From TrEMBL:
<feature type="DNA-binding region" description="H-T-H motif">
    <location>
        <begin position="32"/>
        <end position="51"/>
    </location>
</feature>
<dbReference type="InterPro" id="IPR001647">
    <property type="entry name" value="HTH_TetR"/>
</dbReference>
<feature type="domain" description="HTH tetR-type">
    <location>
        <begin position="9"/>
        <end position="69"/>
    </location>
</feature>
<keyword id="KW-0238">DNA-binding</keyword>
<dbReference type="InterPro" id="IPR050109">
    <property type="entry name" value="HTH-type_TetR-like_transc_reg"/>
</dbReference>
<dbReference type="InterPro" id="IPR009057">
    <property type="entry name" value="Homeodomain-like_sf"/>
</dbReference>
<protein>
    <submittedName>
        <fullName>TetR/AcrR family transcriptional regulator</fullName>
    </submittedName>
</protein>
<dbReference type="Pfam" id="PF00440">
    <property type="entry name" value="TetR_N"/>
</dbReference>
Amino acid sequence: MTRERADAARNRAKILAVAAGIVATRGIDGLAMADVAAASGVGVGTLYRRFGDRSGLAYALIDAKEREFQESFLAGPPPLGPGAPPGERVRAFLHALTDRTFAQLDLLLMAETAGPYARFGGAYEAYHRHLAMLIGQALPEADAAFTADALLAPLTANLVSHRGRTPAELKAGFDGLLTGLFPG
């Protein structure tokens, strides 16, 4: 694997920060390659070579946050990371995933609706495996795979957008479900 040059890594970080700022203020529809290039101090050609197109840039934004999120539930401090009881970890995970979903809702909506199975890529599989493992530890008699899918379903970007629930409402809904799943 080729290691990224230090100046290229700095440019990438700067480009992603600028793009994230644009998406935060203008939404995904306001993300224009020319604007990102100008604000980042790089040429438009550099941007296209690096990310391919606007959707490639959007996916890079998602990927950067996704790596942080996965690190937090795989190796971060409890209760999200290892060291807490499975039920507590499931709750912390669903709360953190709610926050993560709302932080990039426009980007995730674009990514999840790009094709019929776009939602079920690497990140979803990582979430599903993680939840199924925790559920299996806490409830060996449960269908852990089904329960994981059922818990992840409310956080699809298109459903979050369609229903218009707030993060607090979703977290309260999860808490109610989890009280039933993990009593006491």
